[in-house]
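Sample pair:
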Amino acid sequence: MTLESAVVGGGVVSGKHLSGLQNCPETDLVAVCNSDESRARRLAMEYDVEAYADVEALLARETLDWLHLCTPVRSHLRLAEMALDDGIAVLIEAPVTPSVGEAKSLERLARDSEGRVAIAHSHSFEPVLQEAAAVLDDGRIGSLRAVELCYAGAGFADGVGCGAWSTDESGGKFETGLLDPIHAVLQLGGYPSAAGAIRAGTAAKRRHGQGFEYDGVQFSYTTADDVLCSGTVVASSVPHRTIQLHGDRGTLDIDLLTESVTVLDGERQPDTEEGTLDLIGRVRDAIGTALSWEQTDSDCATQRERSPWDDQIERDARAIESGEALSIPVVGGTWALQIMDAIRTATDGPADDGRMQLETDPA
């Protein structure tokens, strides 16, 4: 069985979903929908599928198993509800909704549809994070006690270029990049035990224009399993992005920039010559692999072009077919929004309505 699939949206991120579905053996890409009819036709010609300018027409004329939403965030709840009413599974680009309230409404819809809704978050499927999760699951560092993220090099609030998103929030460009580190902590450490367990603080290296514009964030919470989770995100010109997972038998060091994962236990200390040589070897191997991709056949070229979206699409496609749990449930997106709300509450600016006001690609 293959899943008859379609994508709503016509921007850069929708292209990741279109190519991922086209390359996935478990899916059959049949249609693309975009409110700009000419853009929908261009994409349909590129991927050899049907074009629609209206979601209602798409759902009426196509027999779908899976719908991917790469639309403005304010449309997510409405479109997901339409699909779920027709018994169609849904994958939604993050952020899941504009507000925590809407996210909880979507959670209820997901429960009623037996969990056939997932959040698309490509950063969570970066190979280095997948490797770290596998090491953690293997028990090599024992029971997890704490997760510490340090994420420097994010853009300043008034930085130019926000990618596919736009924001009216006081955090500006800086805020648009917060979901990636937040989701990384949630993925590796688990969810907060309660909304009241979340603590946050903000700082501003500089102020620009009207209102408060922050460019530094700390957040923390404790899970129901008593795992201490924390993250520090600061805007700077020099990137440094690491995560440490502390277990009762060792520590896992993750470097997001060098894409390295190192296990530190009683026999290997971080300041030993052996540990240094291990890290050098990992970087050397990564460089060697990248060079070999440029020199080998089409199979390696395919591996080089594979994106994190491809991995999540294949994993969730198999889960839909087998009835298993999808990779990132709606509750994960809800907790990310609740952490964002705690961060905004910690600012000195006027209270907002708790809405993300983030836009993905136009529908």
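The longest strand covers residues 144-154.
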